[in-house]
Amino acid sequence: MAGSFFIDKREFSPQKPLIIAELGTSHNGDLSKAKEMIISAAESGADCVKFQMVFADEILHPATGEVMLPGGKIRLYDRFKALEMPINFYEKLKEYTETSGLLFLCTPFGLKSARLLRQLQPKMVKIASPELNFTGLLKEISDWDMPVLLSSGVSLLADIEEAVSILGAQNQQRKNRLCLLHCVTSYPAPETDYNLKVLQSLSMIFGVPVGVSDHSLDPQLVPALAVNMGAAVIEKHFCLSRSDPGLDDPIALPPDLFSQMAKAARNAGRDGPEKTIETLSLKHGAQLIQQILGDGVKTLAPSEKANYRLTNRSIHALRDIKAGQIIKKSDFAVLRTEKNLRPGLAPSFEDLIEGRAAKNFIPEGEGIRFEDI
Predict the structure, then answer these.
(1) What does the DSSP assignment read for 310-326?
(2) Sign of the CA dihedral with 365 first, then 370, 372, and 373 last
């Protein structure tokens, strides 16, 4: 198994895991709040803080309507539009993060945000689970030749294999610079869905370091056990308070719980699997611990199974396309369905659609399917 993940000559391993505080967009565009969160994350044991560079049009179509999130239903496209910030906002976040002694990490969601992010010269980049099949974005980031964290929620082994191949992990020099983050795409995710023995399986299959992007509510169980199963990276959502209005705040860890999480993960790295599992079994029951560890076979978790292909990327129409019309590049985009729109062809078919005639009427926002061209 490949255990260590390297960032700018710094080594992170199951004995010394990288602890990431996922701030996302919880700053709501307020730089002073973002700074407060960065300071608090540092004090709570984070090594790194992660943000999201959001541009609504490269994530979803307005026709997705209301989307169910941890805080309830909202018009997500409108919320993303309100969260769009200029590049100098992220420049200030990066500068303040690094002067606070933390690593800066950011997730782009399309080519526009990716190319803007690259201008900031980050030391690494994160790809979110819904973009694991976004081949155009993966190819763009592969050319950067920098450490990549790739989340693998709501995906099958074949999906992961294609993404890992595009990112060049078969290149021996890149193997320790791609970290595959096991993830359950459910908010919150039950601890018993995590099947953490799969970390060993993924590391052996793909020959890369592994970690966990954890959406469960317990601050200790998944992170500590993940480290014992080989995780070199632990990512958890961070908030100042679960009552704050950020999109992910209801399932994030406030400072006191994040501190517990960071301590539990590092203690697990120091103590090793036998002692950690024994301690947690005495506290929570051996049956629960074994359920969280699972069988190591990579499948869709029960809480995310119904979301497969409905939260991943596919090709969607940007206008009403009438039967017989020739489809132009400007007529479609690779977007999320958010479970409200029908999914279209996989992003890998993007280059094959342009110039073809529509066989059926394709409504604006809906996925473009094989039978439509």
Answers:
(1) TSSEEEEESS-B-TTPB
(2) positive
- Residue 62: Cβ within 10 Å count: 14
CA–CA distance, 135 with 350 (Å, rounded to integer): 9
Query: Regarding beta strands 332-336 and 125-127, do their DSSP bridges make them parallel or antiparallel, or are they unpaired?
Result: unpaired
Total length of the chain: 373
Measured CA to CA, the distance from residue 250 to residue 241 in angstroms comes to 8
> pLDDT tens digits for 303-355?
999 999 988 999 999 999 999 999 999 999 999 999 899 999 999 999 999 99
Closest CA to 249 of 25, 19, 18, 20: 25
Stretches where the chain sits below pLDDT 70 are 1-2, 169-175
Strands 210-214 and 66-69: unpaired
Q: What is the pLDDT of residue 170?
A: 56
How far is CA 255 from each of CA 211, 226, 238, 347, rounded to the nearest angstrom?
21, 21, 7, 39
357 by Cβ neighbours in 10 Å (0-12 / 13-18 / 19+) ranks as exposed
DSSP, collapsed to helix, strand or coil, labels residue 73 as: strand
pLDDT tens-place string over residues 172-190: 566 678 999 999 999 999 9
- Domains of the chain (ranges; CATH) run 5-293 (3.20.20.70), 309-372 (3.90.1210.10)
Position 166 scores a pLDDT of: 94
